[in-house]
Amino acid sequence: MLITSVMLNAQQHKILSESFTADTNTTTIFNLDNITVALEESTDGKVHVDYIMEFDGYSKKEINSFLDEIKVEVGKFDNHITLNASSENKISLETYEFKTTDAITINQSFFESKKDSVSRKSLEVLHLEIEQNNRSIQGNSLKYINDRFKKVDKNGKVTDFKKGGIKMMRSRFTIRIPPYLKLIVNAKESGLYIRHHLRNELTGTLIGGTLKTKEISNPYNKVKIENATLEAIAIEGGDFDFINLKSSKIGSIQNTKITSEFSKVEIGEIRKNVTITDFNSEYYFYNWAKDFTRFNLYSEYSKIHFWYPKANHSLKVIGNNTKNLVSNNKFEINMQPTSKEEKYTMMVKEPHPGEKLSGQIFFDIVHGIIYSHNDAIKK
Amino acid sequence: MKQDIRTLFTEEDDLKPLPKNHRSEFADKLKKQSKPKQNPYTWLGVAAILIMALTIGFNALEMETKLEQNQVSPIVAQVEAVEAAYLKDIETEWQSFVAIADDAILVERFRKKLKDLDADYQNISLQFKGDSNNILVIEALVENLQTRLQILKDIQKHINILNQKNEHHEKSI
After folding, report:
1. Which of A96, A321, A347 lies closest to B135 in CB terms?
2. Closest residue to A227, CB basis, from B75, B120, B161
3. pLDDT at A371 over 80
4. Global pTM?
5. Which of A71, A228, B15, B61 suits A373 as a labelling partner, its CA being 20 to 30 A distant?
């Protein structure tokens, strides 16, 4: 009996292993549903697709049932490599399941938005925050679970889940691609973990799930991300649509246009030529490159946490019905308290003459709130 | 028939004397009684008890299974309770938001956003029905409800800040 249960732990199942030749005209299409995929760089010019699932604490019957519900097809036709991967069950890098007999309680306060004290984050700190979660959901899976849920026994006693009280699946779905392929991704409730500097042209839509990535750079990138979490070390080039992004982080951004709504995004460093058009999001602009040249923000009902550039810069704010809260909201500057459609110049800061200009900041804000933080004020 | 019981044990004449070997006779009788009588139908009794136990056990198992089928799992019950509480709060916040918002376009955008989020919730609920122990699915459900509640709270706070009378340090540009 003991031997059987030990053998049932950490069962590995190879689902797929295929390789395809590719050239500069090859297009790769990923259609993902409830699946998590890691992208890595291929160094031999081929596309390699490898999928292994690991199960901890599942019976053979349960494993077979899961495997039956995973559908993966990959093929090459007319120089297009198409991968269709879907699962009935939601699969992440690590997926946890309660045992069927457990009663649970949900820690609702964990899911409520935290009112952290807001302070400037350096680019390095933001990089660390992004990189620490690029290989697993959490280093400590029990903590991850116990933060969100607790076990309730028959007498109503609430306790932490213990090791062995949770079943776990690990997904090792790795696709290695050469840097010159055109990549199209249509993902639904899926995870896309890009573990190398992606120079490929990337287009597609991710609805639900997670996109975690190192630098993605290509001027032709066109990506829509909805109801998901984005964590990117850097974005360079392309157009991005963000809809309802949750606690998202971008290390640095350059030559990029973002259209967003209902999102929360932290940006470590704004570099050259960035434009954001937003409705009702919350942005954190922590740092500015020494040569950011021009930054445009067009927004309605947005909250902007703003730290001024350390280098010489200009700032112009136009719009109406906007407040500027300074020094942890101790001071309030009421900028054009009209909600009529007409826009006014609300704030102008000229650059220091004779000093090299790092860039111009232009805000067009209607019904907005700008939070200028303590350490944001340039002396 | 009345009799004084005190006289019963004083009238020695009525007592019969015990035989001399009464001790050994009594011991022999005891030995004979202690040997159990061999019943040829004992195994039938055992079998009957076994059958009864199995029948009771089977019926109990069947009843338990039927009970389990009819009962909502504790996890589903908990999620349903959380959902009901959230939906009530969301409705309250929605009414409160509509009452303070004087921008019809804003109200319409929020109505659409909440409708979209509800549609997403229905999709996740379908997943939850088939996979109710999956932590990621439960998380997605709670996050969806929390998002709806939070965007309503946030926009009201936003509107209140914009509408606030500037009581201190006011400076119009």
Report:
1. A96
2. B120
3. yes
4. 0.80
5. A228
